[in-house]
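[Automated response] Your request has been received and processed.

Submitted sequence:
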Amino acid sequence: MHSTFGRCHQIIDDSVSQMDAELTELRRFLHAHPEPSGEEVQTTRLVLGRLEEAGLDPHICHGGLGLIADLDVGQPPSDAPRIALRADLDALRLVDEKDVPYASQNHGVSHACGHDAHTTIIYAAAKSALQLGDAFSNGEPGTGVKLRFIFQPAEETCEGAKSLVEQGVLKGVDAILALHLDPERPAGDAGVRDGVLTANCDEVDFVIQGKGGHAARPHHSIDPIAAASHLVSALYQYIPRSVDSRDPAVFTVGKIAGGYA
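Generated structure:
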């Protein structure tokens, strides 16, 4: 068995090395053509075509958003666990300010969270896995791996995972590796953690109502911008003083808007 996994390791290394130019091209194309959460139709179809060209049989999820592809490597026993590898497809509604040839061509939308890289990595894993059959051809009978590749839409809005689960995408899956880049980790290193790793998403909206007035006569108005500034400062001080210091907690104000002039 150890020799089998050694061959798998070598096959994957060789396969990824041969795909270097293709993977760079794919990641940069995705970066230049981002689609926001819930609108990843063209991204889905692009990944579909790439997986089909590689030899997989992917299936698009409801609404043309997201897709999955199963692959059995070798001859795994019927009760072998199925391992899923998951990437996310969506981009953020942020302006891409880079001055590079592959900068976003969809103004106001950009892959600022690395989902273009996630998609490329799981595509590379799927294409490499197709080459692993030879590693198990001389192995023990009933040895192999069951895989499922999941390309999830709408991760940023916390809607995509729920939708895919409701569609049964995780049916028959025994474990899942939910990939994410870590800019603080050196290139070439990978970390694995069971359970919660990053913050979950709970959105909070505050509406501060005031009274308009002339900037030269603030005493005639009730200034909501000043109130908002105090609120943000108070919240940032309140969280670390109200949550057990042994429990990880983070609160971030992502956007503030007020006034017309």
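Summary generated for your ticket: The CA atoms of residues 61 and 143 lie 30 Å apart. Strands lie at 59-60, 67-74, 82-88, 144-152, 175-178.
If you did not submit this request, please reply to this message.
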